[in-house]
Amino acid sequence: MTTRPSGRAPDELRSLHFERQFTKHAAGSVLVSFGDTRVLCTASVEERVPPWLRGADQGWLTAEYGMLPGATHTRGAREAARGKQSGRTVEIQRLIGRSLRAVMDMHALAGRTVTIDCDVLQADGGTRTAAITGGYVALADAMDTLVQRGKLKSSPMHGQIAAVSVGIYDGTPVLDLDYAEDSQAETDMNVVMNEAGGFVEIQGTAEGHAFQREELDALLGHAEKGIGELLAAQRGARGE
Amino acid sequence: MTTRPSGRAPDELRSLHFERQFTKHAAGSVLVSFGDTRVLCTASVEERVPPWLRGADQGWLTAEYGMLPGATHTRGAREAARGKQSGRTVEIQRLIGRSLRAVMDMHALAGRTVTIDCDVLQADGGTRTAAITGGYVALADAMDTLVQRGKLKSSPMHGQIAAVSVGIYDGTPVLDLDYAEDSQAETDMNVVMNEAGGFVEIQGTAEGHAFQREELDALLGHAEKGIGELLAAQRGARGE
Amino acid sequence: MTTRPSGRAPDELRSLHFERQFTKHAAGSVLVSFGDTRVLCTASVEERVPPWLRGADQGWLTAEYGMLPGATHTRGAREAARGKQSGRTVEIQRLIGRSLRAVMDMHALAGRTVTIDCDVLQADGGTRTAAITGGYVALADAMDTLVQRGKLKSSPMHGQIAAVSVGIYDGTPVLDLDYAEDSQAETDMNVVMNEAGGFVEIQGTAEGHAFQREELDALLGHAEKGIGELLAAQRGARGE
Amino acid sequence: MTTRPSGRAPDELRSLHFERQFTKHAAGSVLVSFGDTRVLCTASVEERVPPWLRGADQGWLTAEYGMLPGATHTRGAREAARGKQSGRTVEIQRLIGRSLRAVMDMHALAGRTVTIDCDVLQADGGTRTAAITGGYVALADAMDTLVQRGKLKSSPMHGQIAAVSVGIYDGTPVLDLDYAEDSQAETDMNVVMNEAGGFVEIQGTAEGHAFQREELDALLGHAEKGIGELLAAQRGARGE
Amino acid sequence: MTTRPSGRAPDELRSLHFERQFTKHAAGSVLVSFGDTRVLCTASVEERVPPWLRGADQGWLTAEYGMLPGATHTRGAREAARGKQSGRTVEIQRLIGRSLRAVMDMHALAGRTVTIDCDVLQADGGTRTAAITGGYVALADAMDTLVQRGKLKSSPMHGQIAAVSVGIYDGTPVLDLDYAEDSQAETDMNVVMNEAGGFVEIQGTAEGHAFQREELDALLGHAEKGIGELLAAQRGARGE
Amino acid sequence: MTTRPSGRAPDELRSLHFERQFTKHAAGSVLVSFGDTRVLCTASVEERVPPWLRGADQGWLTAEYGMLPGATHTRGAREAARGKQSGRTVEIQRLIGRSLRAVMDMHALAGRTVTIDCDVLQADGGTRTAAITGGYVALADAMDTLVQRGKLKSSPMHGQIAAVSVGIYDGTPVLDLDYAEDSQAETDMNVVMNEAGGFVEIQGTAEGHAFQREELDALLGHAEKGIGELLAAQRGARGE
What are the structural domains, with CATH classification, of chain E? Predict the structure, then answer.
């Protein structure tokens, strides 16, 4: 049987931590840790909507993602200095936005835009799933803030959401890959699910050999278990 | 039971056509049609590798995707004039590139770069899956051209690949969505598979309600059937 | 006497073809062929005007030009990926726009913008003159479409226009240069004329030795002949 | 008969002035005036060639054009601040470069790049023709400087070149249009010729009605006369 | 004791010249010379304010700076062609704008934007201080023009401003460094002051060894003397 | 006498904290806090030099600065998404780089580039001075790391450096302005000094009324006191 570099069991998450109110200006601010991966997620609310929604009876939610240059083993280029976000960044922030919009009632948010900023302070694999999972907490906190300030009668959120990666490492399906595993994995899949067990996003890529249907089934089983634990941890962190 | 706008059965592909050697300069050139979706796929070979592969004993394959401004119901902005590819474009061309690299032996391609250009002349849903499926034919033709010209002893391709979309339309899992279905679908999934029944990519998104595991299973079943037919059609078009 | 690579007489056009309604979404869509040069011209109509014409009692017509990367002998860079249109592209699309505006009554088009997109699928010399000549047909078809849909009482076009290249190849003035000639020509001139024999644009460049007044006269004679044939072919294709 | 706003005869140039050595750093530096149009032309020489000429036995000449924001009646945007040169700028600088390359022996310039910078300090029509005419003087001065410094044995220039605009103003063909004429002209043509009476560039555009062959002939006659005078003035300014 | 390359005394300015109305379109236009440094400063007035001031009861003043490519010893890249202003340019134009805003009553300018364009025709050190000093004269001239045209009852300027560089060259504090000194200086400081002896900006940088408080005091003394002379010269040039 | 919003004495710094090794990948990583201003400073070392230093016997140090979108009271635009760094960002990162280069022996760093990334997690005034002060600690830590890894025999740093802001708030010169003060200050000055009491940078701007020489003297006195405390705190944090 495979030994994971971290010594974890195949279906074991990394240690998980949510530090709420990590910064003070944004309506929601959470530093989420999936092991050594640390992502600062802030949820900012603005009293306006994008041009293409003017006059429509709904609000909007969008996400932006960034990796601090010093967050990785070898320094990455600063995208602001290069004048362009990479294809990877664009793909990830689109995924985060779609995932969080899935639990938001846009009509109840009418006239407002929520922006979820996910900035990776330290990367060790799984930054996009940490961003979605932490971003949910920042978003829920921000909506509570609006309710407390009397700007909304109730939270416009109608569901809970979390994300995790699964993959095939050294022939074995494993949960929540860290960088040592991710860089060697034959298959990598990111799964986003809600609290009712429904799938919101599945993105799987065979890096090496194509994966078979039974491998896919095993991976989805790991993801369901892991997301159950992540959803519970989100509720715990939020005191629910 | 649902009636599809086109009158097709739930697991029925659109009419499929490959027009090989559609243009004369590129080593491979195929106009692929999935119903009214028409994509021009060319495979160009250059005798150089990207800077980050210099000195490495391998070649490279990359893909670029574009939508002609007049290809859609309402004219789209020209990305070259805007000075920027959209996030959607970037995502799609990364998917095409990863998918086709999965069947290519990069070492056998040493010193060369193949670029697959997929330009949508007319859009009616499923442009990315048509691009992968047609791109495979253009690529295989280009490799045959290199062999015929004596530049390669044998084709560096070690597999066959095709892609199709599946989704839940009006409550029913359906195969190969056209625009009328795609714009209404609750769930949309793109599946890329090889000739051995292995999955190379799965990208599923719940647009409306999250999908359940049994819906996912039904969608994967449709995809497996559809891809089988696409792979056969590719072989037929190539005279294999 | 010079033999042209194609065996054509000095004042002989390449075989000419207009395939109308090549795509279905744009109001006008024509695939024009000047020999092996093939350009897809679409005319799209939008019910708005550019910001600088708001409040003015007129419409607008603009053109955009692109070369598919695989259209040439050696693959060209995709301008959308480079983030910038080349100087050559900008020059050509400005020429196409000016030329077609010359036969359009902008007041009769009030409140609308027509965009002519000219995308080169295969290049073999003379792409800009093919684009103007085919663009005219797409534009005229689009205006007829607006009339048929009851959006305009009559076509706002008040003239017919076509374009051709002439040049000095191997010492002889020739009409409608293909790539083999164009790449060797000492002088290259693009001429745009209307159905009344008036000049709309002349752009001549001496690549090698400067041309004398009598050479210019010979070139203009060829252009007048060629454009007469192109105008007749446009009318034939349009069933006039 | 038409009266020109300036009171000039139809075939009369504006007052012409070349101020050589206007600045001290560039190898050639000329402030040229065509009436109130004033363009600073500098010719800078660098001991390197563009990447695509490395290893080739020739040098290169390129031109860049700019309009100072305060040079026009209403302030124009600064292209460096907008982050982009306009289509008009690109077109003009390509014309200047092609024109001056026509009188330069690139092999005799091997290993060097000459850049002609043409910056318009004050605009009153005809800036591109002033730039070519003044740019020639700056270029010839720079080549003489290289000879004096012992870097070249003799000047690599094999011809003389000048440019002028002609057009139809209020029904009459006129020479060297100023802004008051240019903004009203029905036809505008820029002509570049060498000292042997050969045409290097002709760019004519009908702004209003298309021009007839006899009008074209009259315009070319004016251009030939005007360029003769410009060539003489260049020689006078250079003390030849 | 140090001998300056120019032979000037340590507290001696270069010869100073203001050529007003150097160009005719802008409301104010001054060619300022600090020795061989020559900067064309124009002040253009537009009857609009930036978007972020709409509805506010004030006008705005902004500055832009550019260096002509041929202005320096070795040709500099054209920022418009590179598609980006350098960090140095941005820094300088922000400094010029802040400095001139310090003497302008923005409320009296309501509804208008003044743009000061400072373009360096020839560089020999101190271009930013020449730009501020000359920009003041162009601005004051432009405000007088508005008063003369009846657009303003009185000038909205409430002070006078000038700038100079000081630095430590070869161990000695000196005033108004030219390029020969600037490129060797251990410390370089730009000082902007008003007619009441108040400091508007101080920007000092130690290029080599850090400067001591007494050196700073000596530099400020030189600056106060030099600016007194510059303010007097501005008044002289303006006939005050 | 003025009461500062925070209740601090005029010459009192905010509470100061350095959290070293805040992240694990960069050679030096410090989270510095000046009160509620928190900046993550990382120092990354790469074994290469910029193109313009190739062949020269020295290394290089550069700095980049960014503000996370959620760091401020109202969300700021993400510069990577806008495709451009603001003028303010460029100015700040140039200042950080110049300041830290002042204490580095570039020859001892030959063949290497150090990049100091300063990313503001939370902003409350004085982010640039916190960045320089924290950046010094990250840099010194990174150089120690290189020595420990045997890549350098001794640290190439020859000095210590810190920065602080001073300004005139409500008529009183104060030290280390927070946002409440900074947004109201009449004058704002950033001072960078070394451990020997030498000035490395002074950047003072009068926002409202120009400051007099005696005010400048008072500000410099505060800065000297504050920097003395900052230098001591840096040594304390580093265990020196």
Answer: 14-236 (3.30.230.70)
